[in-house]
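User: structure tokens for NAD(+) kinase, please.
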Amino acid sequence: FCTLRSRLRCEVIESEENNKVLGIHRVLNECLIARGCLSAFHKFDFYVDGQLMTQYQADGLIIATPSGSSAYSMAAGGSLVAPNVPCILVTPIAPHGLSQRPLILPAGATIEVGIPTDSRTLPIASFDGATNIVLDRGSRVRITTS
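Assistant: Done. Predicted tokens:
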């Protein structure tokens, strides 16, 4: 008996202008985009299938698979999802606003999280807690189901 689990493919892109891919990471649980060592919250431009959905103001965003829904995402207030449900979870960490709630998107969605060029600080991206990188202003992370 074998259970297939969905994974996420996360591309770190240098900027919207040159579209240069700086790295590709595959995760089983989650991609975390969060503030670094400074205590200021961040603004994150959030796109789904190329359309700007919102600008999150939060300590970070967790983009998780159903397998990852029982870890950091759940602790941050996200939904618990059965492993066989085809979806992507988006959970803001300590959002600064009443309308910024967790989302469950279809597995076929393409998510992009952009770092505004006027961002006060530089956030980090963490992939299953194993690889951490600093995201520059103007960069973005594109996330799809792998």
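User: Anything notable?

Assistant: The CA atoms of residues 89 and 104 lie 5 Å apart.
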